[in-house]
Specification:
Chain lengths: 115, 112
């Protein structure tokens, strides 16, 4: 079974630009969550999608958005990039049962650097 | 904000020794999960322990949960150099979904 695939692996952007990151979950998984990881703030939850609906949202500004397609693949978009958006963005998929009662499977992330 | 807080932040041991990491959390939970992250990679799920369980084993890993103290510990026995990684505890944000709230993690270094 293929794992969670995130593309691209590395991305360099400049301030003010926008970026779209992609995540393909494990086949059969309906829940996709996104996390931002930085040395200062650690791992922070961005949002979760289940069956194309946003089910939970973290405390991030509106510049961060996401969506999920009917095949469960997900994208997240960051507009008007700031230096502080430099981070490793991780995607995780799971079956999506309530209370997160199943393990989440993570991709290797997209390393975003803002110049 | 972080739900779980790991202790210690960093741990250095020799191969063959045991490593113990602790995690405290703030709110009531349905389950608590432990993940490992190798440098520059994604997280790998290690163990999920439910709130009605007190101890769980998986190979060289032993996890305990004390809901009265809102704490959990991860014990790795007979550590190997390959265990060098960061370890995170995580709890679920709410009943509605699967969103995880992570602690800041413990960085484990195992030298041979």
């Amino acid at each position: 079974k293929a794992g969670v695939t995130q593309t691209p692996r590395y991305l360099i952007k400049t301030r003010g630009q926008q970026v779209t990151l992609s995540c393909s979950p494990i086949s059969g998984h309906r829940s996709v969550s996104w996390y931002q990881q930085t040395p200062g703030q650690g791992l922070q939850f961005l949002f979760e999608y289940f069956s194309e609906t946003q089910r939970n949202k973290g405390n991030f500004p509106g510049r961060f958005s996401g969506r999920q397609f009917s095949n469960s693949r997900s994208e997240m978009n960051v507009s008007t990039l700031e230096l502080g958006d430099s981070a490793l963005y991780l995607c995780a998929s799971s079956l999506g049962t309530s209370w997160g009662d199943q393990p989440q499977h993570f991709g290797d992330g997209t390393r975003l650097s803002i110049l | 904000s972080q739900q779980g807080e790991e202790d210690p932040q960093a741990l250095s041991i020799q191969e063959g020794e045991n490593a113990t990491m602790n995690c405290s959390y703030k709110t009531s939970i349905n389950n608590l999960q432990w993940y490992r992250q190798n440098s520059g990679r994604g997280l790998v799920h290690l163990i999920l322990i439910r709130s009605n369980e007190r101890e769980k084993h998986s190979g060289r890993l032993r996890v305990t949960l004390d809901t009265s103290k809102k704490s959990s510990s991860l014990l790795i026995t007979a550590s190997r150099a390959a265990d060098t990684a960061s370890y995170f505890c995580a709890t679920v944000l709410n009943q509605a979904g699967t969103a995880l709230i992570f602690g800041k993690g413990t960085t484990l270094s195992v030298s041979s």
